[in-house]
Every structure is written in structure tokens, then in C-alpha cells.
């Protein structure tokens, strides 16, 4: 079950919190996909509960972001049922890195729960970016770990993915952690507040969606 709670900055999925277990996207045979419940509309259901005191505007923002995922993939959130086998916790409260309750961060965390992870963790990232490990704040190195068994579903590296970190994410003062090999893109990464088509396509491929972003797919 997905639990939205006021707590710390980080979140866990199925009680597995180590970023070293994360892939760019969950592989097709992963038992961590949300494919246990199928709604009458043919969409896979992520059951959730909300804990903590949120304003009506915050509730509305959350529902809007959930609805975007449902409209563009075959995965949706529903508060009616519980999920066996663990829970996911998304943390939306402020931290030393700023408030987590903004449009882009909230969507990023929701897509993390669905099964997407940082674009900068892809196995093929060295063709597109350079990660400056020496500039990463101590204790946050795992957010930049390259996962060798990543599943990208054949989707090209996406600098504009909402899942891509910015150049100074978790950087020591006055430094950067990510350098794009194409310097024209340096100030574009990490600025997106909405998923790209590639983000949605990856989710659709992960869950074998029959329609993706309103278009019928070739999935049987």
C-alpha cells in the first residue's frame, strides 16, 4: 500500500530503501510492480492512504498528479483497497533541501513508486553525462550509483526526463554533481515539472499497457 505521510525526505518501496536496489525502471519480471490489482477499467491499481495534515490545495495537487499518471498509462491510484506484501512511503514534508510538496517533486516521487528511477543511474549514462563523485555531499553517493542491470526498455536517454537530477543535486557548495557532455543541455536537466513522453512510455512498457498516452499500443 502507498502511504503518503509527513515524515522525512526519503521514501521506501516494499520496505526496500537502499538506492543500490533501484534500477532506471523495474524489469518486466519484477515482483515489485503494482500488478496485483486490476480495476474494472483495466488499469492496475496502486492502493493508498494519506497520513498527516494537508491543506485542500495540497490534496488537490496530489490528486491532479495521480490523475495524469492514470490518463497516460494503465496504472492508477485508488484509496479503496490495501496491498499485501509491504508498503511504500512517500515523504512530502520540508527538509534541508527544501519542500517536497511541489508539482515536480510530487510527480517524481509518484513515478518512483510506480517503478521509475533516476535517469542519471542508467547503465549507459556515461555517453551523455559525467558524474562528479568528488562533489557529492557525504552520504548521498547512492543516488548517483550506476545500476548495471538497468531496464530502459529501449527508450533513449532523456535529458528532459522529470526523473533526471539537476546539475547541482546533492552537491557540495559551489560545485556540480552532474555535467552534461553536450554543454548546451547543462542548465536544462533537473528543471522539468511534468513527465516527458519517454517517461510515460517507459511505464507503459513496464506494465504492458494496451494504451499509452491515449494511443493504442501493439501489446497483445
UniProtKB/TrEMBL annotation:
Keywords: Disulfide bond, Hydrolase, Metal-binding, Metalloprotease, Protease, Signal, Zinc. Its cofactor is Zn(2+). It is an enzyme of class 3 (hydrolase). GO terms for molecular function: metalloendopeptidase activity; zinc ion binding. Its EC number is 3.4.24.-. Residues 24-210 form the Peptidase M12A domain. PROSITE patterns: ASTACIN. It comes from the Eukaryota. The keyword Hydrolase applies. The keyword Ribonucleoprotein does not apply. Residues 1-18 form the signal peptide. Binds 1 zinc ion per subunit. GO terms for biological process: proteolysis. PANTHER family: DISCOIDIN, CUB, EGF, LAMININ , AND ZINC METALLOPROTEASE DOMAIN CONTAINING (PTHR10127), ZINC METALLOPROTEINASE NAS-5 (PTHR10127:SF880). This is Metalloendopeptidase. It comes from Oesophagostomum dentatum (Nodular worm).
Amino acid at each position: 500500500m502507498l502511504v503518503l505521510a509527513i515524515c522525512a525526505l526519503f521514501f521506501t518501496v516494499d520496505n526496500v530503501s537502499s538506492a543500490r536496489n533501484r534500477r532506471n525502471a523495474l524489469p518486466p519480471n519484477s515482483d515489485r510492480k503494482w500488478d496485483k490489482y486490476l480495476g474494472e477499467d483495466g488499469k492496475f491499481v496502486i492502493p493508498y492512504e494519506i497520513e498527516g495534515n494537508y491543506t485542500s490545495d495540497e490534496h488537490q495537487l496530489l490528486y491532479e498528479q495521480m490523475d495524469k499518471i492514470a490518463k497516460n498509462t494503465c496504472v492508477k491510484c485508488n484509496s479503496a483497497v490495501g496491498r499485501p506484501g509491504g508498503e511504500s512511503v512517500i515523504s512530502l514534508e520540508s527538509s534541508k533541501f527544501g519542500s517536497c510538496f511541489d508539482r515536480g517533486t510530487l510527480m517524481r516521487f509518484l513515478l518512483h513508486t510506480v517503478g521509475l528511477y533516476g535517469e542519471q543511474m542508467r547503465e549507459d549514462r556515461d555517453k551523455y553525462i559525467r558524474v562528479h563523485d568528488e562533489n557529492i555531499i557525504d552520504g548521498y553517493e547512492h543516488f548517483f550509483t550506476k545500476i548495471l542491470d538497468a531496464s530502459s526498455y529501449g527508450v533513449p536517454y532523456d535529458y528532459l526526463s522529470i526523473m533526471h537530477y539537476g546539475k547541482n543535486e546533492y552537491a557540495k557548495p559551489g560545485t556540480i554533481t552532474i555535467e552534461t557532455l553536450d554543454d548546451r543541455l547543462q542548465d536544462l536537466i533537473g528543471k522539468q515539472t511534468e513527465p516527458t513522453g519517454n517517461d510515460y512510455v517507459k511505464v507503459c512498457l513496464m506494465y504492458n499497457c494496451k494504451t499509452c498516452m491515449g494511443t493504442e499500443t501493439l501489446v497483445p
